[in-house]
Write a structure and sequence with these properties.
Shape of chain A: globular
Mean pLDDT of chain A: 87
Oligomer: homodimer
Distance between the termini of chain A: 26 Å
Largest interface: A-B, 50 and 47 residues
Low-confidence stretches of chain A: 238-243
Radius of gyration of chain A: 18 Å
Order of helices and strands of chain A: HHEEEEEEEEHHHEEHHEEH
Largest sheet of chain A: 4 strands, antiparallel
Number of helices of chain A: 8
Chain lengths: 243, 243
DNA sequence: CGAGACGTTGACCTCCTTCAAGAGAAGTGG
DNA sequence: CCACTTCTCTTGAAGGAGGTCAACGTCTCG
């Protein structure tokens, strides 16, 4: 569960005691191939998930085939903490790359929260961040132009890749096809292609297979009006106020 | 806190013991005039909120003035349960009508959860539902046409008004100007106006001041491809009396 | 080497925006 | 009670951002 530890350290001063508590978390690993579904709409999951490796996407497909991606999940992301009140999932989670997740049993999670430990608080942070990402997705798709959307999402993913320990400076592996980008941004893949090429020609980005490099991050930020406050990653340690 | 009780009864069999626990919740009422902000972006709220009366909106305004509403809050809605890990709010909450909220102290909320009571579980339900509404907002604005969006949002608000005990059959008070609708749906208010008139002429809706009447709900549902599963209200122990 | 996924590009079209201007409704102050 | 401002709603005309359709190129992998 290296990805989890790395992540939680962003949100709390994890000490030996907390580490031990986390290591003792009951659950198990499961692997999914690229394209497989981790959770299907209508299922009733009884575990929470931690992404250990790979990227996944939460998405909804309408009856006529239109598809919308709600958000992406990177290594270290925790999701479905609401298993306490398990109801049918209203969406699907699909592996983009091959994915390894750790499934945490409901009971184990509960005891972590009940203890009022820092580790429990860190889980809350994860939930908070995930909701904030959803909110930003609404703003991005609701009130930004295609250009702004593409630039904004790229900056978000780069930032999150760094947090996940998967980025090398300005370059990172972004294993997302243009069609997936389109489904995330509410655009057609043809238009996403045009915008990407435009950003490329403007010298903002460079792409080589799945490796994306930000050649001019300042410019991108300006285009996207990007402010990473919503990722809630600045200076967290002081703020933990659980219990 | 009538609005809260009414709401929680949708999500759990609240007994006398739970009722007592809820009535003992520490906190207080606060009133806001229409247009006032309950929470400003950048503030650090230390309480969770329960809407007792009136409608509010969670919204983000971009630097250039474009504004996006994330979701609407109706009586009985609970929000900002994540105060445990209080960070700066990344959005603003504005009163649409005059609003009365109950502010719950962090500590009080915690003890409710720790007890593992039904009342605590009901709060989790509220959080789950709110997130689901956010997700649906992404799908709606990302992959639906203007017509579909308007119809879909109207159906959602009608359903939620019923849950909040504020709807009389097919009619309900929807105190939302066309400009606000536009900000919620990522459209221009001019176009919202046109779509509303179109739905009116098609005999689907009727509007009289803030009172909206669904004249042909079946048709609306067809237009919107509306399925209220995401509101998570079907599987309750209590039978939903859908007047 | 062939199949299938993914990316690229052009032509045309449409849904929605923007601009503009006017009509009601509603509050405000004299 | 009437002039006033100020919202909100309404409607038309023109333009543009992005969608759709179609065809072709490229990469990967079995």
């Amino acid at each position: 569960m290296d990805a989890l530890f790395r992540r939680l350290r962003y949100y709390a001063d994890i000490g030996d005691r907390e580490l031990a508590a986390l290591k003792a978390l009951k659950g198990g690993f499961e692997d999914f191939a690229s394209g497989e579904d981790l959770i299907n709409r209508g299922e009733r999951p009884s575990e929470a998930f931690i992404v250990e490796k790979g990227w996944a996407a939460r998405n909804v497909t309408l009856r006529d085939g239109r598809s919308q991606i709600l958000n992406f999940m990177l290594p270290g992301d925790v999701f479905d903490l609401q298993v306490f009140v398990a109801d049918k999932a209203d969406h699907t989670i699909t592996a983009i790359t091959s994915v390894r997740v750790f499934q945490v049993e409901r009971r184990a999670l509960l005891s972590l929260f009940d203890g009022g430990t820092r580790a429990g608080a860190a889980f809350w942070w994860c939930a908070l961040q995930e909701e904030a990402i959803l909110r930003e997705q609404i703003v991005r798709n609701g009130r930004r132009s295609a250009r702004e959307r593409v630039a904004h999402l790229i900056l978000e993913l780069h930032r999150r890749a760094i947090i996940a320990g998967e980025a090398e400076g300005e370059s990172f592996v972004m294993p997302i096809s243009q069609a997936l980008l389109a489904d995330a941004l509410g655009l057609s893949f043809v238009h996403v292609n045009r915008v990407l090429r435009e950003l490329h020609h403007a010298g903002c980005i460079e792409r080589n297979r799945t490796i994306l490099t930000l050649k001019d991050r300042a410019r991108l930020r300006e285009i996207a009006d990007f402010d990473d406050d919503y990722l809630h990653i600045k200076d967290n340690r002081r703020r933990l106020v659980y219990a």
